[in-house]
């Protein structure tokens, strides 16, 4: 599983391109995005996203809270989470985000938490 910014040019090695953001990336035309699946339900909730934006130095707490949200989705048999798992079995998947910090500090994004959850469950 790879990570890229949604604005990056699609490449054949991307495999399936899955947008893992709750909001559509600003200024990105859907026609040019080459997104195969929008997994908006398996991203941090709006309150959690806003909390982390205000507390970027508390990634461990964000991780804990987001993992709890994912566990709740999993327990409820969330359709998008199940679809994402299916896509992962079909070949390469690149998780996309609009986050600017992906290049600067990729250890502190929701994509890593999502990947870790999917690998553990």
UniProtKB/TrEMBL annotation:
Protein name per the record: MarR family transcriptional regulator
């Amino acid at each position: 599983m790879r990570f890229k910014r949604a604005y990056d040019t699609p490449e054949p090695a991307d495999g399936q391109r899955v947008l893992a953001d709750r909001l559509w990336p600003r200024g990105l035309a859907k026609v040019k995005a080459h997104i195969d699946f929008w997994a908006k339900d398996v991203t941090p909730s709006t309150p959690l996203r806003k909390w982390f934006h205000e507390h970027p130095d508390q990634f461990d707490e964000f991780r804990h809270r987001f993992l709890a949200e994912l566990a709740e989705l999993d327990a409820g048999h969330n359709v998008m989470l199940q679809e994402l798992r299916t896509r992962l079995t079909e070949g390469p998947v690149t998780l996309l985000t609009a986050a600017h910090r992906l290049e600067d500090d990729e250890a502190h994004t929701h994509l890593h938490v999502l990947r870790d959850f999917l690998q553990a469950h």
